[in-house]
Design a protein that fits this description.
This protein is of the alpha+beta class and 407 residues long. Among the domains are: 110 residues, 3-Layer(aba) Sandwich (Rossmann fold), CATH 3.40.50; 42 residues, no CATH class; 80 residues, Aldehyde Oxidoreductase, domain 3 (Alpha-Beta Complex), CATH 3.90.1170.30. It is 28% helix and 28% strand. The strands form 4 sheets. It has an 8-stranded antiparallel β-sheet with strand order 13-12-9-10-11-14-18-16, with helices on both faces. Strands 3-2-1-4 form a 4-stranded parallel β-sheet.
């Protein structure tokens, strides 16, 4: 299994302990910086396609292609034609574009969950049925039709990252949406690798038999946080590791096993849940690389994309994982109001280094950023989760004033 040596001051200083030549892959996501980094840590050579081609992604030496503004996401197909015929490791938010994902699969091999599994994972009624059958808590769901709407959230059937979620009383019924009962608790997520105990078979029914889910890590999620200017319900950060009571961890594991088996998941996937005391209330499943993966990798020193590719190819997946020896966090700072990006001053850069922190997903110098759009990400290492949380919160205030200027 590929591993890397942590360097608390510089995420780019990676020491790989792998044998053999590097296999090339395409890292495909709305924002591919984290995914490309995970591919590199797993000893792959990534080519990246995304919406941004952020400055730090380009500076890392990864060959990256930005889909032109106004062409996302369908413009991905044209960019693929400009790259070699390589396998694809994909991330958010392509699970919400099944027709496009099918078109991509006809041009390049997709690693991870097959299309039928992605479709089942994005069907909230199927997911709720699987979870209820497994004895795991999950909010009620129903079609978005006229009727009582108090106490319900209206969610897009094809959504990702919390985008488009509204209180049901605020929006009219729509066939493109569904309703989910409100639930309360600490927002959390779990990263799994689904693998098969038996060799690959071709029919969807057989594919589900023997599937297991390796629980790699559990994290706290930041969602709709005001000090990051994040839109309501939008994902905006991760803190890891999150310790769970034994009974809670068993609930999360049971959910992961049931979803992997019944949906036909393969490789990396994530579940979002609310921690209500010792009870895990499962909210949704993401059948692909998630935003939490790079932070889980950070605290464990494990290259999760290596496990993802092995599972996709029916190769053995290591079942023993190291313990976390420190904490890490990332927080996505959103623009509010419209802004332009200015790189941090030397003094701010020294402050980042002093706090074992760094910027990621950085725009080009003087790049315009619309209000409500992600501007940049702050990442840090810390001795424990509470310290990591405090660091990113303090740095968010400093760097918003430093790096975002009025347009």
């Amino acid at each position: 299994m590929a591993t890397y040596t942590r360097n608390e001051r510089d995420e780019a200083t990676v020491s790989l302990r792998c044998e053999g030549p590097r296999e090339a892959v395409i890292a495909l996501a709305a924002s591919a910086r984290a995914l490309a980094g995970s591919c590199t840590r797993a000893r792959f050579l990534p080519f990246a396609i995304d919406r941004f081609a952020d400055a730090d992604l380009v500076a890392s030496g990864v060959e990256s292609r930005r889909v032109p503004p106004g062409s996302w996401p369908d413009g991905v197909l044209a960019e693929l034609e400009r790259l070699p015929a390589l396998p694809i490791v994909w991330g958010g938010a392509f699970e919400s574009h099944l027709e496009l994902l099918a078109a991509i699969s006809r041009r390049r091999p997709l690693l991870g969950t097959p299309l039928h599994g992605v479709a089942r994972a994005k069907d909230p009624f199927v997911v709720a049925e699987v979870l209820r059958a497994a004895g795991v808590a999950t909010p009620a769901v129903r079609a978005d039709e006229p009727g009582a709407r108090d106490g319900w959230l209206s969610k897009p059937l094809r959504g990702s990252g919390g985008g488009g979620i509204r209180a049901a009383v605020e929006v009219a019924p729509s066939s493109d949406r569904f309703l989910q009962a409100r639930a309360s608790g600490l927002a959390a997520s779990a990263v799994f690798v689904a693998h098969r105990e038996e060799s690959r078979v071709t029919s969807p029914a057989e594919t589900r038999r023997g599937a297991r889910a390796l629980l790699v890590g559990v994290t706290r999620q930041l969602v709709g946080v005001g000090w990051l200017a994040a839109p309501a319900f939008s994902y905006c950060g991760t803190v890891a590791p999150l310790a769970l009571a034994r009974s809670t961890r068993e609930q999360v594991q049971r959910a992961g096993d049931a979803l992997a088996r019944e949906l036909g998941l393969v490789g990396v996937f994530g579940i979002d849940f609310l921690l209500d005391g010792d009870r895990a209330v499962i909210i949704e499943v993401n059948p692909r690389y998630t935003a939490a993966v790079e932070i889980v990798e950070r605290v464990l020193g494990v290259a999760i994309v290596d496990l993802h590719v092995r599972a996709s190819r029916d190769e053995p997946v290591a079942m023993t994982l190291p313990d976390a020896h420190h904490a890490a966090a990332k927080a996505v700072v959103f623009a509010s109001p419209d802004a332009r990006f200015v790189p941090p001053s030397d003094a701010a850069s020294r402050e980042l280094a002093r706090r074992y922190a760094w910027l990621a997903d950085t725009p080009l110098n003087d790049q315009a950023i619309a209000a409500g759009e992600p501007a940049f990400t702050i990442c840090c290492d810390a001795p424990d989760c509470e310290s990591a949380w405090r660091r990113v919160r303090e740095l968010a205030g400093i760097l918003r004033a430093e790096c975002l200027r009025s347009r």
